[in-house]
Amino acid sequence: MIAKVYRKVDVKDQPTDFAYWQKQPYQTRLAALEEIRREYHGWQDDAQPRLQRVYTIVKR
């Protein structure tokens, strides 16, 4: 059976995300950055999103 373990830590004593990423090798940081970039731009595999066409209707 697995025992439940928890630690109560003051907010000031919590490690920061910056400290975590500074400990990671540069390959891991670049891989995470590339994943975030692809998610942000909505890329899937190698298909890059294109600019949408914008039509303007002008009455003469």
Total number of helices: 2
Termini Cα gap: 79 Å
Shape: elongated
Q: Unreliable runs, pLDDT <50, ≥5 residues?
A: none
Reported for the largest beta sheet, the result is: none
What string gives the helices and strands in order? HH
What is the strand and helix layout of this fold?
Layout: H1 17-23, H2 26-41
Report what the structure shows.
- The protein is mainly alpha-helical.
- It is 38% helix and 0% strand.
- It contains 2 helices and no strands.
- The protein is elongated, with a radius of gyration of 23 Å.
- The mean pLDDT is 83.
Can you summarize this structure?
The protein has 60 residues and is an all-alpha fold. The protein has helices at 17-23, 26-41. The protein has a domain at 14-41.
Task: Provide key terms for this protein.
60 residues, mainly alpha, 2 helices, 38% helix, 0% strand, elongated
